[in-house]
Write a structure and sequence with these properties.
Immunoglobulin-like, about 45% strand, OB fold (Dihydrolipoamide Acetyltransferase, E2P), eight-stranded antiparallel beta sheet, mainly beta, about 350 residues, seven-stranded mixed beta sheet, 1 helix, single chain
Amino acid sequence: MLKKGLGIILGILVLILGAVCWMKLRTPEEGQKVDNYRVIFEKGSYCGGTRTGCMDLKISLENGEHRKMFASADDVTGNGYHTITDDHYLLRVCLDDQELNSTAYEISADLDTQLLRIYFTNPQAVASQDPVEIKISKGTIDQEVARIPAELTNGSSLAEFTSVSGNELARICASGIYLDLPVSASSAAPSRSIGSVRLQAGENTYILPFASQAASSPSPEESNVQSLLPAVASTNQELPDVRIYATEIPDWEAVDSLTLTSGAAGSLILVRKDQMEDLTYVSGAVQSQEADTLFVAGSDGCFYKAPVPEDLQDTSFTLGQSVDIFYQEKTPQPYGYDLRGVTAISTFIL
């Protein structure tokens, strides 16, 4: 009798364990169903120091067809939507009812599963616990078919960069870049003229096309703050049309310098704060230019002669233009110093 009772109890336990395992294996029931797709939030993080975040979204097709919910990598419109021509799905990142600037890349895809990485910025420096959601609409924004809560972890790791003057600041993390630039009282924010952002990590260079992500109507104290979504373009000389994703930029923590470039204003170089004291540089005003040589009156009262780096030899420097020249060594001359091993010249006009 006892054995029979134990057998019954054991059988019940087996059934319970089987049911639990069966339920856990039913992964298609996770996430939200949109037509023939299953949309699952995988993971996400937000960095308050850069006001940027990223999220992974897994989309599975359940009816055996082989069609993506969203077109791959580069099919992102200027307003941050993901669209495809077949079913016209729209993907947005929202904080309550406020739409955040966002872009997304296809990380991987097979016959019936697509993994997207979505980057977003928030001009309000929201904390990670605030209710960020992914909203999917079909046809028009008003036809919302899914609202997926984003459980974001705190991504606080970042590197800080500064200019020689210390007036300009940048922060870089895995999900984006934050810029804090001074604003002239007589002009618009200088960041609006920036064409690209160049990251230098050892011998590797990466260029990010600049897209301002500031609030549409920023307050005066916020008008100098910009957050950038991550990289798109590769600088490979042999393959100039090759595109890379932000997730493919290796070792963002190893970035040594950040250069803001503008056709009208020149370039502004920011270096890691923890490396600034190890750099040798001179600040001054341009006195003249002869071919690929620059003559500068230093702010220390000395006169300097410096070769112009190859990437700046097409630049026309103007009389009195402020420059910061980064070099490796200097040689005394009767007129002042010759600078040798010039690595960069910062020429940004604020």
